[in-house]
Amino acid sequence: MSELDNHLNSFTQEQFDQIGADFDAIRRRVINDLGERDANYIRTIVKRQRQFEVGGRAMMMLPPTWPLGVASLSLSKILDNMEIGHNVMHGQYDWMGDPALNSKNFDWDTADTAENWKATHNFEHHTYTNVVDRDHDIGYGLLRMADDQPWEPRFLLNLPLTALLHVFFQHFVAVQNLKLENYLIYKTKSREQLAEEFKPVWAKMRKQLAKDYVYFPLLAGPFAPLVFAGNMTANLTRNIWACSVIFNGHFPEEVEQFDESVLEDESRGQWYVRQLLGSANFEGSKLMHLMSGNLSYQIEHHLFPDIPACRYAEIAPEVRAICEKNGLPYHSGPFWKQALSTWKRIARLSLPDRLLPTKKPKSKAAPKAKPAAEKETLPLAA
């Protein structure tokens, strides 16, 4: 058992409850403070996103401005995906009463349906964060990303499949809710069941493919090839960036995974601790934070998924202070460092356990809070 495990198992339930109260206080304060500046922020981002899209699509139709057009459209798609779509569909702006920014109405410019994403991400991922066999984001049914996942020969392809996932990320996310591995590999899902579940997915994917690769190129007339190539490049840029941001926040080597015992009688304080241990931040400029949808503050996002992400930077020092007070880790590092650690994990877990020179400990079980009466006390000084 690691030093951190021993430390967590020394906590009383009262200590976990205090951690929960401390984080609840941060959330309550921010929620009570939401107002005009937050509304102006998201409306400004939406306005800029639309300007980048219109400008990008116009500039792509002329060869001299094609690179600028692609860059502009790429920025538009990243903003729509990361800072607008992801955060709006978390309900971060429902309090505004604006139908266009309400999580129940919003849909984004990507292949995944809003309803499927809210089921796999908002509920499944954020409820069972990093719990093996409950959080499908651990490997997306495609990769081996946890030591507790039994090795299979297909995981030898961990590295090339990860690269493929980055390239076609919007489409892999679109079919995530189908749990394709249950049909293709484990044979626990019928062809008929899969076909029925795929209907709404294919309707959204077909709409997106037609928009980017049929309708807009046709509107460009003789410049159709430029628009087709520009849309493909912008989608590729958005896919690679979004996948990189998500992987850097969830899969560096120091990020923990958990077995299902962690869910047994889990208190709110213990849930907060699981979010801390199962997340990592990456550092960078204000532009990098904006383009990541502020998921560069993945720790704060896992703690407070319904708080507007633009607030994460200002509460991050308070979160770090609570971690330091309780001897809990706060994983953070430069983008390149988190990416390198993530790809190291992907490579390591592609190999059978017997070939690994060193093996990371298995997924964590639930820390068992000690009754208050059992809490160790220091001897009085003579």
Automatic annotation (TrEMBL):
InterPro entries: FA_desaturase_dom (IPR005804), Fatty_acid_desaturase (IPR012171). Residues 371-382 have a biased composition (Basic and acidic residues). GO terms for biological process: lipid metabolic process. Residues 65-332 form the Fatty acid desaturase domain. Residues 356-382 are annotated as: Disordered. Residues 357-367 have a biased composition (Basic residues). GO terms for cellular component: membrane. One of its GO terms (molecular function) is oxidoreductase activity, acting on paired donors, with oxidation of a pair of donors resulting in the reduction of molecular oxygen to two molecules of water. This is Fatty acid desaturase. It comes from Salinisphaera orenii YIM 95161.
